[in-house]
Amino acid sequence: MVRPVQVVKDANGLRFSLDGGRGSLQGDRPLTVKKIFQGGPKDLLQPGDEVLQIGERSLQGLMRLEAWQLIRALPMGPVQLLVREKGKL
């Protein structure tokens, strides 16, 4: 199931890490939530959820580093994500 999720960027970023992406060690894969850090959006995301979009920007075809740079460039405050829940189409 694809759904919108609103998270908050603070001095520690979005408080979750990403895995996969174009050119990853496992090959080209979708960008997924790898780990949710303390204070992160544990009630909204879970490891394995695919992050399809951040704000208006699609993550399709991006390397993990490119997605990380996009996140770093975001202003602090609310951030809209579009995610596909792990294991759900």
TrEMBL record:
Biological process (GO), any one? leukocyte chemotaxis
Protein name as annotated: PDZ domain-containing protein
Boundaries of every PDZ domain copy? 4-72
An MF annotation (GO) of this entry: CD4 receptor binding
**Short name of one Pfam family:** PDZ
Kindly indicate where the leader peptide sits in this chain: none
Q: Which domain of life is it from?
A: Eukaryota
User: Which PANTHER family does the record cross-reference, listed alphabetically?
Assistant: DENTIN SIALOPHOSPHOPROTEIN, PRO-INTERLEUKIN-16
